[in-house]
Write a structure and sequence with these properties.
This protein is mostly beta strands. The chain is 0% helix and 51% strand. The strands form 2 sheets. Strands 2, 4, 5, 6, 9, 10 and 11 form a 7-stranded mixed β-sheet that branches. The chain is built from no helices and 11 strands. It is globular, with a radius of gyration of 13 Å.
Length: 123
């Protein structure tokens, strides 16, 4: 069992940066692939990115490639999402999730989810 808590969301202006954190509790955090997803009102949950448990593989959604970076600190049971050059279309609730897989972009594959943190980007 893994519990996930996101933090770091807020209101920023277009072009700003923001770093989200996801703190995990429970055993064996280091063996889980961690993913970030987002969901805007009226839209489906969208894959943002994922990082494998050994930090050797990262995968990003097309809309955030080159702007967002995922990293993790297994010693601190934490995964991060660094978001640069934010755009109004990045506005959404951001969720972190965990799955025991090499790497995964499908929301349905993830077993554990946090409660989400709101990111709002004004133009």
């Amino acid at each position: 069992q893994v519990q996930l808590v996101e933090s770091g969301g807020g209101l920023v202006q277009a072009g700003d940066s923001l770093r989200l954190s996801c703190a995990a509790s429970g055993r064996f955090f280091s063996i889980y692939t961690m993913g970030w997803f987002r969901q805007a009102p009226g839209k489906e949950r969208e894959f943002v990115g994922a990082i494998s448990w050994r930090d050797t593989i990262t995968l990003y959604g097309d809309s955030v490639k080159g702007r967002f970076t995922i990293s993790r600190d297994n010693a601190k049971n934490t995964v991060f999402l660094q978001m640069n050059s934010l755009k109004p279309e990045d506005t959404a609730v951001y969720y972190c999730a965990a799955v025991q897989a090499l790497i995964e972009s499908r929301p349905a594959a993830y077993n554990y989810w946090g409660q989400g943190t709101q990111v709002t980007v004004s133009s």
